[in-house]
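Box 3.1 A note on notation
Throughout this textbook, protein chains are presented in two layers. The first layer is the amino acid sequence; the second is a token string describing backbone geometry. Keep the layers aligned when reading.
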Amino acid sequence: AEGASGWRVPRWPKALGGGSLAKPLLPLARDPFQGDNRRRALTSPQRALETLQPYARLHVDIIAARNLLARDLNGLSDPYVQVFVNDHHVGNTNVRNFTVNPWWDHRMAIDIFSPLTIVHLRVMDEDRFTKDDTIGFVEF
């Protein structure tokens, strides 16, 4: 049978309910990762980050630390936390001066683009005239 615009419209075989015009097909939802987006993402990882939506959003609360190692000559530290996602630096807490028991109460949201993402929190001691010292770290 022919449709209104002259297109040929197939009929269902009689064995499948017979003779009436073919049932309309629902349009497929376009996957944003098809076509040009997919091609660009596969050839350029940086482009993939710009093109694709995050896999998830991770909310990180850095509250406090206790009994940190003293890294300064005065027996204290000036601690802060660096946050890395897959070895990319994404933020810091504020520095808490002259303490080994800092309270940060810092909150941040991190976009996660892969289920295999590694988040690395590194506790540092800020030094004014020399390179900052690492106190410790945790990964998850």
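Strands lie at 56-64, 79-85, 88-92, 103-112, 119-125, 133-139. The mean pLDDT is 79.
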